[in-house]
Amino acid sequence: MRHLVFLLPALLLLLALPDTRGRYNDDFDDGEDIAEFDDNDFAEFEDVSEDPAVDVEKEPPPRAAPSSTPIEDDEDEATVENEDSQDEFEDADAQDQDMYSKYDNEEFEGYEKTNSPFKDTLIYREVPAHLQNSWESYYMEILMVTGLLAYIMNYIIGKNKNSRLAQAWFNSHRELLESNFALVGDDGTSKEGTSTGKLNQENEHIYNLWCSGRVCCEGMLIQLKFLKRQDLLNVLARMMRPVCDQVQVKVTLNDEDMDTFVFAVGSRKAMARLQKELQDLSEFCGDKPKSGAKYGIPESLAILSEMGEVTDGVMDNKMVHYLTTHADKIESIHFSDQFSGPKVMQEEGQPLKLPETKKTLLFTFNVPGMGNTSPKDMDSLLPLMNMVIYSIDKLKKLRLNREGKQKADRNRARVEENFLKHTHAQRQEAAQTRREEKKRAEKERIMNEEDPDRQRRLEEAAQRREQKKMEKKQMKMKQIKVKAM
Amino acid sequence: MYWITVVAHLTYPIYCLTSYKPPNTETNPTLEDPTPDYMNLLGMIFSMCGLMLKLKWCAWIAVYCSFISFANSRSSEDTKQMMSSFMLSISAVVMSYLQNPQPMSPPW
């Protein structure tokens, strides 16, 4: 072990020698001999490292007392060499450092040593969400699907509620209808009316019932217009603006079942709206809706009438009682012999005839509950159906006196005249175009005629007709002139 | 045209039976509710946008439109139209996710 300790520095020295030689070559440019350098080197080191060498010398001799002299020499040399080697190494390191710093400064001019922030410029890219294996990133999709499920649930619940309400209404009214009408419930699929005894579902929120087979009327169509409970958007819209379910009854009468008049009673809002929208009310009931207080009905109801006699005739005690008791449920009641539906917007090429009219009684009732209706509320509409039946029978008997009839006839004539005036220009144009079409057709026929003789004859006949027409016109003009004179 | 049957009975007065005639909506367009038709058309437009422009939100709105159209539809309406609109919107959603499986990002 001691041998190894002394041999190692020697080995290291042998290895270090060529390096030191090289470095000294750089430093000393005088070109001195290498051997001289070696001696000087060691001399330097010997002078410097005397004390530690002495200490070191003291140590090995007591240890190596029995050892031979070459070993002692080795130890001396070894200690010095050790120190030399150590110093050399130290110097070498220092020199290296100096060299490198000098080298850096000279080599890289203008090089600014920055604290390389390699760690700060590292960018952490996020893993794309669809590769993350987590459902949380798909929260929008989950929201959408939840919304769809909510819509489907609302559809099922709304549809069922509407169906239950319709069935409740029909169950409470079935007896009354079947006692008054021979045919209750016809869907129109068969040629002859067959009583199905069921409501006809048009929509998820509209149910129809056709009743027929009664004296005094042609037929009665009842429409249960419920709210769109099956549509979630509509449900949300109704939260802002409450609306109620409605029952519409339309009774069509035969010509002999009703006299000629127009009359309406209902809530003020409804009356104002109907007067603007409906053809017959706007033409025959030009005055503003009057308050019903004069006849004993609540202030909330207004009356639109063609003449005062009609109002007096309709508003008998029983009618007033019905209106007073159920004022909150009555939206509008409309009796008209000139009913043709809402006003048709006039466009170019519109029909030049007056719209078809039918003697009709229209009732619109509001179902109580303002949207939150329960099947039990349907029973409260039964008295209103009684009112409908009563009205049908009453109007059969209601007849205007002579003055009233004359006034009514004058009104109708006035409306027809106005209509003809408005459409006069259009009718003239239509007649002109028809005449031109006829002429063109005739000319074509003459041209297509192959036989020249026949052609000549047809042309002559057409010319004669034209001449006759001109003569007639001239005669008319002369007559007008004579009359004017 | 509707059929009138005159029934005479010994004890009851004469009355007429008239069969039901559905109202003609061509002459009176105000009677018809246009919601299902508009929603159907909107649904198809959004489906095409979703498919062509690869927009996921368009495809989802198309699905909603077809559902709303179905909810408001009349019983007499053709179910084939409904089904085709519905299938188109579902295909738009599926195709947009196949092309780009990333989740939808909210607009905010």
UniProtKB/TrEMBL annotation, chain A:
Compartments, as annotated in UniProt: Rough endoplasmic reticulum membrane
Basic residues bias locations: 475-485
MF terms in GO: calcium ion binding
Recorded topology in the membrane: Single-pass type I membrane protein
GO cellular component terms, A-Z: rough endoplasmic reticulum membrane
Name of a matching Pfam family: CCDC47
Family per similarity comment: Belongs to the CCDC47 family.
The protein's name: PAT complex subunit CCDC47
UniProtKB/TrEMBL annotation, chain B:
Gene Ontology terms for molecular function: protein folding chaperone
Pfam families documented for this protein: ASTER (PF03669)
Domain of life: Eukaryota
Record's subcellular location: Membrane
Gene Ontology biological process terms from the UniProt entry: protein insertion into ER membrane
An example Gene Ontology CC term for this record: endoplasmic reticulum membrane
Major localisation: membrane
Keywords, ordered alphabetically: Membrane, Transmembrane, Transmembrane helix
Residues that span the membrane, as ranges: 41-70
PANTHER family reported for this sequence: CGI-140 (PTHR13193), PAT COMPLEX SUBUNIT ASTERIX (PTHR13193:SF0)
Family statement: Belongs to the Asterix family.
Name the record gives this protein: PAT complex subunit Asterix
